[in-house]
Amino acid sequence: MKVILLGTAAGGGCPQWNCACPLCTSALAPRTQDCVAISADGVGWYLLNCSPDIRSQILSTPPLRAGPGPRETPLRGVLLTDAELDHSLGLLMLREAGGLPVYAPDTVLDALSPFRAIVDGYGGWTSLVDLPGLRISSLPVSDKRPKYVSSTGDGPWVVAYRITDLATGGSLVYAPCLKSWPEGFDSFVEGASLVLLDGTFYAPDEMAGVGGPDQLAMGHLPITASLARISGRPGRWAFTHLNNTNPVLDPVSEEHAAVLSAGASLPADGTEFSL
Ligand code: MLT
Ligand code: MN
Ligand code: ZN
Prior knowledge:
single chain; 275 residues; alpha/beta; Metallo-beta-lactamase, Chain A; seven-stranded mixed beta sheet; six-stranded mixed beta sheet; 13 strands; binds D-malate; binds manganese (II) ion; binds zinc ion; Coenzyme PQQ synthesis protein B
Protein backbone atom coordinates (compact mmCIF):
# COMPACT_ATOMS: atom_id res chain seq x y z
CA MET A 1 0.00 0.00 0.00
CA LYS A 2 1.23 3.43 -0.87
CA VAL A 3 0.53 6.19 1.65
CA ILE A 4 1.11 9.88 0.95
CA LEU A 5 0.69 12.51 3.65
CA LEU A 6 -0.93 15.32 1.68
CA GLY A 7 -1.23 17.63 4.68
CA THR A 8 0.01 17.38 8.27
CA ALA A 9 -1.32 20.50 10.02
CA ALA A 10 -4.40 20.97 12.19
CA GLY A 11 -7.30 23.24 11.26
CA GLY A 12 -6.00 26.53 9.85
CA GLY A 13 -2.70 25.04 8.66
CA CYS A 14 0.64 26.63 9.37
CA PRO A 15 0.86 29.52 8.90
CA GLN A 16 -2.77 30.26 9.82
CA TRP A 17 -4.16 33.34 8.08
CA ASN A 18 -5.19 35.18 11.27
CA CYS A 19 -2.25 34.22 13.46
CA ALA A 20 0.96 36.17 14.05
CA CYS A 21 2.47 33.81 16.62
CA PRO A 22 6.22 33.12 16.34
CA LEU A 23 5.70 29.85 14.47
CA CYS A 24 3.24 31.32 11.96
CA THR A 25 5.60 34.20 11.21
CA SER A 26 8.74 32.05 11.04
CA ALA A 27 10.40 30.75 7.88
CA LEU A 28 9.40 27.14 8.58
CA ALA A 29 8.17 25.06 5.65
CA PRO A 30 4.40 25.57 5.49
CA ARG A 31 2.08 22.68 6.34
CA THR A 32 -1.38 22.23 4.85
CA GLN A 33 -4.35 20.72 6.67
CA ASP A 34 -4.40 17.03 7.59
CA CYS A 35 -5.28 14.68 4.73
CA VAL A 36 -3.83 11.34 3.58
CA ALA A 37 -3.95 9.48 0.26
CA ILE A 38 -3.69 5.68 0.08
CA SER A 39 -3.55 3.20 -2.77
CA ALA A 40 -3.19 -0.57 -3.02
CA ASP A 41 -2.18 -0.59 -6.68
CA GLY A 42 -0.75 2.90 -7.25
CA VAL A 43 -3.53 3.56 -9.78
CA GLY A 44 -6.75 4.08 -7.76
CA TRP A 45 -6.44 6.33 -4.71
CA TYR A 46 -8.58 6.95 -1.61
CA LEU A 47 -8.45 9.99 0.62
CA LEU A 48 -8.54 9.76 4.39
CA ASN A 49 -10.27 13.02 5.25
CA CYS A 50 -10.70 15.80 2.73
CA SER A 51 -9.12 19.06 3.74
CA PRO A 52 -10.00 22.56 2.53
CA ASP A 53 -6.51 22.48 0.93
CA ILE A 54 -7.39 19.47 -1.22
CA ARG A 55 -7.13 21.29 -4.55
CA SER A 56 -3.50 22.30 -4.03
CA GLN A 57 -2.73 18.95 -2.38
CA ILE A 58 -3.96 17.07 -5.46
CA LEU A 59 -2.23 19.38 -7.90
CA SER A 60 1.11 19.00 -6.09
CA THR A 61 0.89 15.18 -5.97
CA PRO A 62 1.45 13.70 -9.46
CA PRO A 63 -0.29 10.31 -8.84
CA LEU A 64 -3.49 12.17 -7.86
CA ARG A 65 -3.68 14.43 -10.89
CA ALA A 66 -6.42 13.92 -13.45
CA GLY A 67 -6.04 11.59 -16.41
CA PRO A 68 -5.53 9.65 -18.59
CA GLY A 69 -8.93 10.57 -20.09
CA PRO A 70 -9.87 14.25 -20.18
CA ARG A 71 -12.15 14.02 -17.14
CA GLU A 72 -10.78 10.90 -15.48
CA THR A 73 -9.34 11.03 -12.00
CA PRO A 74 -7.47 8.42 -9.96
CA LEU A 75 -9.56 9.39 -6.91
CA ARG A 76 -11.88 6.50 -6.04
CA GLY A 77 -13.36 7.76 -2.79
CA VAL A 78 -13.03 9.46 0.57
CA LEU A 79 -13.22 8.13 4.14
CA LEU A 80 -13.82 10.61 6.95
CA THR A 81 -12.72 10.15 10.55
CA ASP A 82 -15.03 12.93 11.78
CA ALA A 83 -17.08 15.92 10.64
CA GLU A 84 -14.61 18.68 11.59
CA LEU A 85 -14.38 21.36 8.91
CA ASP A 86 -10.64 20.87 8.42
CA HIS A 87 -11.36 17.21 7.61
CA SER A 88 -14.43 17.61 5.44
CA LEU A 89 -14.69 20.99 3.70
CA GLY A 90 -12.64 19.63 0.79
CA LEU A 91 -15.74 17.70 -0.23
CA LEU A 92 -17.18 21.05 -1.34
CA MET A 93 -13.99 21.69 -3.33
CA LEU A 94 -14.31 18.32 -5.09
CA ARG A 95 -17.87 19.07 -6.26
CA GLU A 96 -16.74 19.05 -9.92
CA ALA A 97 -16.50 15.25 -9.75
CA GLY A 98 -20.17 14.45 -9.26
CA GLY A 99 -20.87 11.12 -7.56
CA LEU A 100 -17.68 10.96 -5.50
CA PRO A 101 -17.93 7.90 -3.20
CA VAL A 102 -17.80 8.90 0.50
CA TYR A 103 -17.75 6.79 3.65
CA ALA A 104 -18.17 8.11 7.21
CA PRO A 105 -20.01 7.00 10.35
CA ASP A 106 -23.73 7.86 10.16
CA THR A 107 -23.46 10.56 12.81
CA VAL A 108 -20.74 12.26 10.80
CA LEU A 109 -22.77 12.05 7.58
CA ASP A 110 -25.77 13.54 9.41
CA ALA A 111 -23.67 16.43 10.68
CA LEU A 112 -22.42 17.08 7.15
CA SER A 113 -25.91 17.03 5.61
CA PRO A 114 -26.00 20.84 5.04
CA PHE A 115 -22.79 20.54 3.02
CA ARG A 116 -24.06 17.45 1.29
CA ALA A 117 -27.19 19.32 0.26
CA ILE A 118 -24.98 21.91 -1.44
CA VAL A 119 -22.90 19.28 -3.25
CA ASP A 120 -26.14 17.57 -4.35
CA GLY A 121 -26.64 20.53 -6.65
CA TYR A 122 -23.40 19.55 -8.42
CA GLY A 123 -23.88 15.79 -8.74
CA GLY A 124 -23.75 14.75 -5.10
CA TRP A 125 -21.88 11.98 -3.31
CA THR A 126 -22.39 8.27 -3.51
CA SER A 127 -21.64 5.68 -0.84
CA LEU A 128 -18.17 4.22 -0.72
CA VAL A 129 -18.69 0.52 -0.13
CA ASP A 130 -15.70 -1.34 -1.51
CA LEU A 131 -11.97 -0.65 -1.54
CA PRO A 132 -10.45 -3.38 -3.73
CA GLY A 133 -7.26 -4.85 -2.28
CA LEU A 134 -7.74 -3.16 1.11
CA ARG A 135 -9.47 -4.18 4.32
CA ILE A 136 -10.81 -1.41 6.55
CA SER A 137 -11.71 -1.52 10.20
CA SER A 138 -12.69 1.38 12.39
CA LEU A 139 -12.69 2.13 16.10
CA PRO A 140 -14.76 4.88 17.75
CA VAL A 141 -12.19 6.97 19.62
CA SER A 142 -13.82 10.17 20.85
CA ASP A 143 -17.09 11.99 21.50
CA LYS A 144 -15.67 15.33 20.28
CA ARG A 145 -18.33 17.12 18.22
CA PRO A 146 -17.53 19.94 15.79
CA LYS A 147 -18.39 23.40 17.16
CA TYR A 148 -20.97 23.97 14.41
CA VAL A 149 -23.01 20.90 15.44
CA SER A 150 -25.95 21.40 17.79
CA SER A 151 -27.15 17.79 17.86
CA THR A 152 -26.10 15.79 20.88
CA GLY A 153 -26.44 12.47 19.07
CA ASP A 154 -24.68 9.47 20.50
CA GLY A 155 -22.01 9.17 17.86
CA PRO A 156 -19.59 7.84 16.99
CA TRP A 157 -18.33 11.37 16.35
CA VAL A 158 -14.72 10.37 15.71
CA VAL A 159 -13.24 7.11 14.55
CA ALA A 160 -9.75 5.83 13.80
CA TYR A 161 -9.18 3.61 10.77
CA ARG A 162 -6.95 0.60 10.34
CA ILE A 163 -6.33 -0.15 6.68
CA THR A 164 -4.62 -3.36 5.65
CA ASP A 165 -3.22 -4.17 2.23
CA LEU A 166 -4.45 -7.69 1.51
CA ALA A 167 -1.48 -8.46 -0.76
CA THR A 168 1.42 -7.17 1.35
CA GLY A 169 -0.15 -7.46 4.82
CA GLY A 170 1.08 -3.91 5.53
CA SER A 171 -1.27 -1.81 7.61
CA LEU A 172 -1.82 1.83 8.44
CA VAL A 173 -3.61 3.16 11.52
CA TYR A 174 -4.88 6.71 11.05
CA ALA A 175 -5.95 8.42 14.30
CA PRO A 176 -5.65 12.20 13.87
CA CYS A 177 -8.21 13.09 16.55
CA LEU A 178 -7.72 11.43 19.95
CA LYS A 179 -9.17 12.91 23.11
CA SER A 180 -7.59 10.18 25.22
CA TRP A 181 -5.71 6.95 24.62
CA PRO A 182 -9.00 5.18 24.12
CA GLU A 183 -10.29 1.82 25.25
CA GLY A 184 -9.25 -0.83 22.76
CA PHE A 185 -6.66 1.35 21.05
CA ASP A 186 -3.67 -0.75 22.13
CA SER A 187 -5.03 -3.81 20.38
CA PHE A 188 -6.23 -1.72 17.41
CA VAL A 189 -2.65 -0.57 16.71
CA GLU A 190 -0.99 -3.91 17.54
CA GLY A 191 1.34 -4.98 14.73
CA ALA A 192 0.50 -2.01 12.48
CA SER A 193 3.24 -0.99 10.04
CA LEU A 194 2.61 2.73 10.64
CA VAL A 195 0.49 4.57 13.20
CA LEU A 196 -0.42 8.21 12.53
CA LEU A 197 -1.41 9.86 15.80
CA ASP A 198 -3.05 13.13 16.81
CA GLY A 199 -0.17 15.58 17.21
CA THR A 200 -2.27 18.75 17.53
CA PHE A 201 -0.62 19.97 20.72
CA TYR A 202 2.63 19.13 22.44
CA ALA A 203 1.70 20.04 26.01
CA PRO A 204 -1.53 20.70 27.93
CA ASP A 205 -1.21 24.52 28.22
CA GLU A 206 -0.23 25.41 24.70
CA MET A 207 -3.27 27.41 23.58
CA ALA A 208 -2.77 29.82 26.49
CA GLY A 209 -0.05 31.52 24.41
CA VAL A 210 -2.63 32.64 21.84
CA GLY A 211 -5.46 33.19 24.32
CA GLY A 212 -7.32 29.96 23.60
CA PRO A 213 -8.86 27.19 25.70
CA ASP A 214 -6.67 24.38 26.91
CA GLN A 215 -6.39 21.62 24.38
CA LEU A 216 -7.89 18.86 26.47
CA ALA A 217 -11.06 20.94 26.33
CA MET A 218 -10.53 21.07 22.58
CA GLY A 219 -10.51 17.28 22.54
CA HIS A 220 -6.89 16.61 21.66
CA LEU A 221 -4.59 14.44 23.74
CA PRO A 222 -1.22 16.20 24.00
CA ILE A 223 1.83 14.56 22.41
CA THR A 224 3.46 14.33 25.86
CA ALA A 225 0.68 11.94 26.94
CA SER A 226 0.95 9.84 23.78
CA LEU A 227 4.73 9.61 24.07
CA ALA A 228 4.29 8.09 27.51
CA ARG A 229 2.15 5.38 25.88
CA ILE A 230 4.47 4.56 23.00
CA SER A 231 7.91 4.99 24.49
CA GLY A 232 9.80 1.74 24.41
CA ARG A 233 7.11 0.08 22.29
CA PRO A 234 8.11 -1.33 18.94
CA GLY A 235 6.42 0.17 15.92
CA ARG A 236 6.56 3.08 13.55
CA TRP A 237 4.79 6.03 15.15
CA ALA A 238 4.26 9.44 13.57
CA PHE A 239 2.33 12.56 14.53
CA THR A 240 0.10 14.54 12.21
CA HIS A 241 -2.61 17.26 12.52
CA LEU A 242 0.00 19.58 14.13
CA ASN A 243 -1.45 22.87 15.33
CA ASN A 244 0.39 26.07 14.48
CA THR A 245 1.03 26.62 18.20
CA ASN A 246 2.93 23.34 18.49
CA PRO A 247 6.65 23.84 19.23
CA VAL A 248 7.53 20.55 17.52
CA LEU A 249 6.99 22.38 14.22
CA ASP A 250 10.41 23.93 14.73
CA PRO A 251 12.96 21.24 13.91
CA VAL A 252 15.54 22.76 16.27
CA SER A 253 13.20 22.83 19.29
CA GLU A 254 13.76 20.59 22.30
CA GLU A 255 10.17 19.35 21.93
CA HIS A 256 10.93 18.18 18.37
CA ALA A 257 14.02 16.37 19.67
CA ALA A 258 11.97 14.78 22.47
CA VAL A 259 9.52 13.30 19.94
CA LEU A 260 12.33 11.85 17.86
CA SER A 261 14.14 10.43 20.85
CA ALA A 262 10.93 8.69 21.97
CA GLY A 263 11.00 6.84 18.66
CA ALA A 264 8.28 8.79 16.81
CA SER A 265 8.53 11.02 13.75
CA LEU A 266 7.05 14.31 12.53
CA PRO A 267 6.77 13.79 8.78
CA ALA A 268 6.36 16.77 6.48
CA ASP A 269 3.67 17.30 3.88
CA GLY A 270 4.34 15.06 0.89
CA THR A 271 6.00 12.25 2.86
CA GLU A 272 5.40 8.86 1.27
CA PHE A 273 5.36 5.41 2.83
CA SER A 274 5.20 1.98 1.26
CA LEU A 275 3.53 -0.53 3.58
C1 MLT B 1 -10.11 20.35 15.79
O1 MLT B 1 -9.40 19.46 15.29
O2 MLT B 1 -10.14 20.53 17.01
C2 MLT B 1 -10.92 21.18 14.91
O3 MLT B 1 -10.66 20.89 13.59
C3 MLT B 1 -10.73 22.61 15.25
C4 MLT B 1 -11.37 23.48 14.23
O4 MLT B 1 -12.57 23.75 14.33
O5 MLT B 1 -10.67 23.94 13.32
MN1 MN C 1 -8.96 19.44 13.26
ZN1 ZN D 1 0.16 30.74 14.85
